Amino acid sequence: MGKIKIINLLLLVALLISVTLIGGCVPAGGDEDTSIIYMIVLLVLLFGVFYFLLIRPQRKRQREHEELVAGLKSGDRVITVGGIYGQIESLSEDSVVLRVESGATLRVARSGIAFKQER
User: What's the mean pLDDT in 57-62?
Assistant: First the structure.
């Protein structure tokens, strides 16, 4: 996540918290039911912001990675999470055998494949 998104998120959370605290200050003779309603609405809004800024993008990235791993086939050129470049020699249910530039082979977990190289 970029620095600007994190800063915006923190500012938004700070704003919501300050509004929540100010909204909780009811003048003498004020209606406490509306104060509780405002608090609930702000908590729902806060959850909505977290969902759209954090949870939803993470799920999208996870789904894309699962599709990438499911679509791997022998001969694909890939990059692992550790930054190792290689070509897939064989696949099993939970691992991949890569041939690297030196000619050596490595067995890596399927989830350890980060990217598929464009040819």
Answer: 92
Residue type, 62: Q
78: nearest Cα among 51, 52, 110, 53: 110
**Are 53 and 5 within 8 A, CB to CB?**
yes
- Tokens representing 52 are 């759209």
DSSP H helical segments within 3-55, as ranges?
3-23, 32-50
Residues 99, 105, 111, 116: what is their CA dihedral angle, to the nearest 10 degrees? -10
pLDDT in tens, 61-70: 999 999 999 9
State whether residue 53 is helix, strand or coil.
Answer: helix
Single out the residue of 80, 19, 91, 94 nearest to residue 49, CA to CA. 19
Confidence of residue 37 (pLDDT cuts 50, 70, 90): confident
Pairwise CA distance, residues 101 & 112, whole Å: 18
Q: Which residues of 84-94 are buried (b: 16+ CB within 10 A; e: fewer)?
A: bebebeeeeee
- Tell whether pTM > 0.70: no
Q: Which fold has domain 77-116?
A: SH3 type barrels. (2.30.30)
